[in-house]
tRNA pseudouridine synthase A
Amino acid sequence: MERIMLRIEYDGTHFVGYQVQLEKRTVQLEIEKALEKMHHQHVRIYSSGRTDSGVHALDQVIHFDTTLSLDEATWKHALTTLLPNDIKVKSAHKVESNFHARKNATQKTYRYIVLNRKEHDLFRRHFEWHVPQQVSMERIHEAVPHILGRHDFTAFAASKTNVKGDKTRTIYRFDVFKEHDRIYFDITGDGFLTHMVRIIVGTLIEIGLGKKEVSCIPEAYETLNRRVLGITAPGHGLYLKQVQYK
């Protein structure tokens, strides 16, 4: 028995999310179907984390155990042949039996893209959030330091979050920059709650639009009240950019 780690990317447009759901198309389902064709039995995969409907991945990590003896290049080629064209295997590696894609992850980086101009981009409408009103980058940059560090992010989580107990997380780095008409949010932390990045981005955009004050962020830490924050940004502008391990 060998354990294989895959680094994959996917276009989340036509998936209802990563995790298997009854009679719905998911990333996990498509990969497990491909592995079942190779093994002639079900093979369970484990990921670094789940992504929601419409969310994309540039560097998702999964692992699975196999009885097949294939080299790494053959694994990549075989799965590329069997998988649909909105999932791509970037690399395959043999790892130690105690490696776990989720439990061993130390940091994750997400990217969110906002198109900030009057007209939308027809051909990128599934890959960025269109905000036609002028956004103040100065106000956003004023707010970003309040996100950094270790906080109880309860107010930044969806009510449906599957995380029980402590919702304290550490944000190590948060870069926000604008190139032409697009605003990029790159956020790195030790873990993220359901919709956490999308709520952070939605709040910062509303701060940039003058709809919310910067003070709503420390207020959210103190009160744990979701209502003091901004909207939840749509899923299609979000990308899992990188997963890091020791």
About this structure: The first strand starts at residue 2 and ends at 10. The chain has two domains: 2-95, 107-245. The chain is about 20% helix and 30% strand.
